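Researcher: Go.
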Amino acid sequence: MFISENNVAVLLNGEKVTKIEMKADITGEPTILENESLRWFIIKRGEKYGIRLRDLEAELVKNFEGIERFPINPKWKINAKFIPYDKPKEVSIPTILGTVEKDFSPGKLDFSIDEKQYSLEPTSAGEGLFVVFADLTSGEETYGAGRFLYVDGPDTNNNVILDFNKAYNPPCAFTKYATCPLPSDENKLRVRIEAGEKNYGDGH
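Model: Structure:
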């Protein structure tokens, strides 16, 4: 429950509010409140709740100059085969907070790089798949806690395109206050993925 002091102008969708039941981010439609340049909403991680606060006038926001990337290379647009599990597999996903969350993987992605075989275990993301992975560039050219990658779901022949050129940094690469998932042991690749976003600043 959010209750505002009478002399503080808090807005929801442009309208002033003084009292409201706030929805958390896990609902898919979080209640986002604002006061001048500030925006905030409720997050839930496991059984814990927190407030995510953003300042649109923060120096890091105003002076953001983008993220360095590896050059786009067709080599890293890889054909993978989706191997579905008989039923979704419960997986344990560590987080940057030191907690472990549970999710479900519908199957694994098998693919090859330079004639060597690798696999990743994604989770479902709507009609697609979501991968949190690390590789041998992690902690060097790229963020040490891994990167994210969304891919389209498998076609009728269970083929999937893994385009590592689209790999991007998780929020915790930019702030120590994020609550990012980390790569599971199954998603730590013993190969250099020289594609996608590189590390930002000094990392966190």
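Model: DSSP finds one helix and 14 strands in the chain.
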